[in-house]
Structures are given as structure tokens and as C-alpha cells.
Amino acid sequence: MNYADSLSSQLAVVTGASSGIGTEFARQLARRGVDLVLVARSQDRLEALASTLSSQYGVKVTPVVLDLSRPDSSERLVRTLDEMGAVVDVLVNNAGFASHGDLAAADPERMEAQVQLNVGTLVGTTTRLLRGMVERGRGSVINVASTAGFQAVPHMAVYSATKAFVLSFTRSLWGETRGTGVAVLGICPGATDTAFFDVAGDNASVGSRRTPQQVVDTALSALGGRKATVVDGGGNALVARAVSRLLPERPLIRIAERSVRPGSR
Ligand SMILES: NC(=O)c1ccc[n+]([C@@H]2O[C@H](COP(=O)([O-])OP(=O)(O)OC[C@H]3O[C@@H](n4cnc5c(N)ncnc54)[C@H](OP(=O)(O)O)[C@@H]3O)[C@@H](O)[C@H]2O)c1
Question: What Å distances lie between residue 42 and 13, 15, 64, 67, CA to CA?
């Protein structure tokens, strides 16, 4: 039995559960008998998913409708969880979005919202829930980073920087929690077939895309193991880890730019 199979009867909070990778995390955790709190803005989708998963797997699923890009949202989320009497064993920080384009032409409020969602709320929620996990000697935190976090990506400057933060933060937390009974993992998907590209734009990826199921399989197989971070897919792992370490800065930035800037491929 792997670590993820031992989560049965625990309670997981999955952010960004209304779509893509978050929906798949919810589905795979429900299949293992994990009760769920599902968080996102799309009430209809969360309610539909909650009713499907609870009837299919017999677990308790509670939707929480919240815009996590607001500065006070982790506080609001944890207050809601406290009011529900929820003791959170598993936190999946998955909600996030990317924007595509040069910063000089970008909407500053959208950039700030991106940092708040991808980084600020992730840190706030983790900080607020981790103490209880450590005190209880049991818990899991999965942070969804990205292969874009391994190097700078011109034309997706804010997004790649937020994911670099998530990678670094997760590695530090992994170190801090060793021996506490809390498992910490950063999952780094490469291009994955979700609604992500409806927001980021189709030009934000090159080559084939993996499935949310593959990403979540990779994460749940690695959770509780020896690694602080795992890249989904062998090709992605090679590019993210090897290429970004071996190439000098300037060619690396140019190659990353070419992979996302329209007309530069
Ligand atoms: N797809 C990829 O190629 C890829 C690659 C690497 C990393 N990732 C990462 O994977 C994670 C999940 O993305 P995905 O590919 O599954 O994309 P997705 O299908 O667009 O899902 C994004 C999820 O985040 C939620 N979300 C977005 N803004 C939110 C907000 N302000 N407040 C609350 N929830 C919000 C969305 O729900 P609502 O719209 O209902 O709020 C949705 O459930 C993200 O962190 C993304 O950066 C994706």
C-alpha cells in the first residue's frame, strides 16, 4: 500500500477543484475514501462535482465558493473550515492561472491577482493549516508548481516567477517538516490538457500535452516518498531539471521564450 492509499477517512481541501487537475485530485482522493472540501469560484461546477463524488464513492464532499485571488482569502477559507468543524489532514494547493504576454502591456491588477492566487493565498493557507498538522503529527501538503518554475520564461514572466516561488517554498517546507509526520510535495506538471490554456492562451505551450490523470497519478505516487518535488512525465523532467541546470543563462532564457512567444518558434 502506498502512502496515498493510507489517506482513507481523512479530510482533504482541494483548491481549484472545479476544473482540470484540481477536479482530478478530488476524484482520485474520493476514490481512496477521503472526505473533501472543494474550493473555487464556480458554484455550479463545484456542486455538480460534489454530488457526483459523494454518490460514486460514499465520501462527504463540501463545496466552498471563494475567490482565492483576494488578499484575505486564506483567512476567510480557514475561518469557514473552522466554522464547519473541519480538521484538515490533506491540503492540495492547486488553484492558479497564467497570463501570456509582455509585462509592459499587461494589466497590473491581473498580475497582482496572479501573484496573490498562485503565491499569497497558497502561503497563507499553508501557514494557517500546517501548525495543526504538525501538532497532530499527521498531514499532507501538495503544492502544484510547474515546469515553468525551473527557469525564467519571457512572455510569462509573472507566472514562471510565481511557480519558482512555489518550488522553493515547497522544498524549504519539506526540509522543515521532516520527522514531523507531515508529508510535503511539489508537483510540477508540464503542458497538461485542461482549461488552463483557455485563460493563458494556446500559444502558452508547445508540443503534446499530458492528461490531468497522469499528473495526479504522478503526484499521489510520489507523496510521502523521498522527493520534495516531482516533475510529471519523463520528457518534462529531462527538460526541467537537466536542461535548466546545464545551459547558461542567456540561451536558456531565449529557448524558454521561443517555446511560448507567438511567431518565435
Ligand atoms: N495545465 C497546464 O498545462 C499546467 C501546467 C503546469 C502547472 N499547472 C498548474 O496546475 C494548476 C491547475 O491548473 P489547471 O491546468 O487544472 O487549470 P484549470 O483547468 O484552468 O483550473 C484552474 C482551477 O483554479 C481555479 N481558480 C482560478 N482562479 C481562481 C480564483 N481566483 N479563486 C479560486 N479558484 C480559482 C479554477 O476555478 P474557478 O474558475 O471556478 O474559480 C479552476 O478550478 C494551476 O496551479 C496551474 O498553474 C497547469
Answer: 16, 12, 10, 9
Reported as a pLDDT band with limits 50, 70 and 90, residue 42 is: very high
146-168 CB burial, b ≥16 within 10 A, e <16 = bbbbbbbbbbbbbbbbbbbbbbe
CB of residue 42 inside a 6 A radius of ligand 1: yes
Q: Which fold is adopted by the domain 3-260?
A: Rossmann fold (3.40.50)
The residue assigned the cell 510520489 is 222
pTM over 0.90, yes/no: yes
State how far Cα 116 lies from the chain centre. Answer: 14
Domain ranges of the chain: 3-260
**111 vs 32, 101, 215, 249, CA distance in Å?**
37, 11, 26, 25
Ligand 1 neighbour 37 (Cβ under 6 A): no
Q: Is 159 a catalytic residue?
A: yes
pLDDT digits (tens, 9 = 90+) for 233-260: 999 999 898 888 899 999 999 999 998 9
What is the distance in A from the centroid of ligand 1 to the CA of 179? 31
SS3 229: strand
Output the CA angle 70-148-20, nearest 5 degrees.
60
Rounded to whole angstroms, the Cα distance separating 17 from 39 reads 6
